[in-house]
């Protein structure tokens, strides 16, 4: 990287000298000029050429902090033009003051009388260079946005497929049918209720799987159905507290909270002696927390380990915030940033 920067600066140095030589030929008809004049032309060209080259580095720094071509193109154009005008003016007037007023000992009136065309031409050159820089920057931003959207679409499809696959997989259905079979012999009314909840659960899976976002209330209702089915199976060994305020105006990715609860059930031992305790709550930072005590299974179920990664990528794209996963103090916690519709990207 450092070698490339050095090479670029050397190229800028050589190009600036060449421009000075070309200017000498255009103004004087040949390169046969006094050495002092040649040095003056070279110095003047370098004083303009190197800052012009440095403008690319300056704009890269400025772009990362103040430019957003995709979401705020109008504001970005104004900011870029203002930054470029201020920078260009500082370079042009400083260079001309040094070489014409200080070195050649001219006064401003004489300089402006004979060199106003030089100032105008330098502004035009800087504007042309700036236009090229802006065009390249805008194209890169547009290309990155397209790539990011395509990546998010792929991650979204992968997440939806993974969740749907998990819910329809033989293990989940087998366990649910086993529970139902046991209930039929023990409690017919409860078996009917279990059947209705299982039916509603799969209905919601099919309803939500193709949506981009749903309300927090809808997701909590869905998670509640899932927990009911699992608590019938595990009884008091599975303890789930949901203290999330459903009135909070937030959105979530469909089935994502349920997937986090299922993840806790799938990877931890559950027994009356060591119950699994899961908490679903809203933090003061407008985040949804899913937390459970850690008691890992000795033999974990097979996992692709991509579910959390895909989910985190999609939440970061939709909210601009990271989904935080922590494991300490005997607890596993996932903090999911709630999606605010008014601030969500299209």
Short description:
InterPro entries: Bact_2-comp_sensor_kinase, HATPase_C_sf, Sig_transdc_His_kin_internal. This protein is an alpha+beta fold and 346 residues long. It is built from 9 helices and 7 strands; from the N terminus they run ααααααβαββαββαββ.
Provide structural commentary:
The chain has 346 residues and is α+β, with helices and mostly antiparallel strands. It folds into two domains: 2-145, no CATH class; 169-343, 2-Layer Sandwich (Heat Shock Protein 90), CATH 3.30.565. The protein has helices at residues 2-28, 35-66, 73-103, 108-168, 170-186, 188-208, 216-234, 256-267, 307-319, and strands at residues 214-215, 238-242, 251-252, 276-282, 287-293, 324-328, 331-337. It has a five-stranded mixed sheet. The protein has a two-stranded antiparallel sheet with strand order 1-3.
Which of globular, elongated, flat, extended, rod-shaped describes the shape? rod-shaped
> What is the average of the pLDDT values?
79
Q: Ends: how far apart? A: 36 Å
**What's the main sheet like?**
5 strands, mixed
Corresponding CATH superfamily of the largest domain:
Histidine kinase-like ATPase, C-terminal domain
Task: Assign a percent range to the helix content.
Answer: 55-70%
What's the architecture of the largest domain, going by CATH?
2-Layer Sandwich
CATH class designation of the largest domain: Alpha Beta
CATH fold-level assignment of the largest domain? Heat Shock Protein 90
**Rounded radius of gyration (Å):** 33 Å
The tally of helices reads 9
Strand order, largest beta sheet: 2-4-5-7-6
Portion in beta strands = 5-15%
According to DSSP, the number of beta strands is 7
Poorly predicted tracts of residues: none
Protein structure class: alpha+beta
Order of helices and strands: HHHHHHEHEEHEEHEE
Give the count of structural domains: 2
Transmembrane segments: 7-26, 38-59, 80-100, 120-139
Domain Signal transduction histidine kinase internal region: 160-238
Protein name: Histidine kinase
Keywords: Kinase, Membrane, Transferase, Transmembrane, Transmembrane helix
């Amino acid at each position: 990287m450092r070698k490339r920067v050095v090479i670029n600066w050397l190229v800028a140095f050589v190009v600036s000298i060449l421009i000075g030589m070309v200017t000498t030929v255009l103004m004087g008809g040949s390169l046969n000029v006094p050495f002092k004049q040649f040095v003056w032309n070279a110095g003047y060209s370098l004083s303009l050429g190197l800052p012009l080259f440095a403008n690319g580095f300056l704009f890269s720094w400025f772009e990362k902090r103040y430019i957003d071509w995709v979401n705020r193109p109008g504001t970005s154009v104004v900011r870029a033009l203002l930054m470029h005008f201020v920078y260009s003016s500082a370079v042009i007037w400083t260079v001309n003051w040094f070489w014409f007023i200080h070195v050649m000992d001219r006064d401003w009136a004489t300089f402006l009388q004979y060199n106003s065309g030089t100032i105008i031409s330098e502004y035009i050159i800087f504007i042309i260079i700036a236009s090229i820089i802006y065009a390249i920057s805008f194209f890169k931003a547009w290309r990155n946005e397209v790539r990011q959207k395509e990546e998010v679409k792929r991650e979204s499809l992968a997440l939806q497929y993974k969740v749907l696959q998990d819910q329809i997989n033989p293990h989940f259905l087998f366990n649910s049918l086993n529970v139902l079979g046991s209930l039929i012999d023990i409690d017919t009314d409860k078996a009917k209720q279990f059947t209705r909840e299982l039916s509603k659960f799969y209905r919601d899976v099919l309803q939500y799987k193709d949506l981009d976002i749903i309300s927090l209330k809808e997701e909590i209702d869905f998670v509640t159905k899932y927990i009911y089915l699992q608590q019938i199976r595990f009884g008091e060994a599975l303890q789930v507290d949901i203290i999330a305020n459903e009135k909070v105006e937030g959105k979530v990715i469909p089935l994502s909270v349920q997937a986090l609860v299922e993840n806790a059930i799938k990877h931890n031992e559950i027994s009356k002696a060591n119950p699994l305790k899961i908490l679903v709550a809203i933090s003061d930072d407008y985040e949804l927390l899913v937390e459970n005590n850690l008691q890992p299974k000795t033999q974990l179920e097979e996992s692709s380990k991509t579910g959390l990664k895909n989910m985190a990528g999609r939440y970061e794209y939709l909210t601009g915030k990271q989904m935080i996963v922590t494991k300490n103090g005997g607890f596993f916690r996932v903090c999911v940033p709630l999606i605010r519709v008014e601030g969500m990207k299209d």
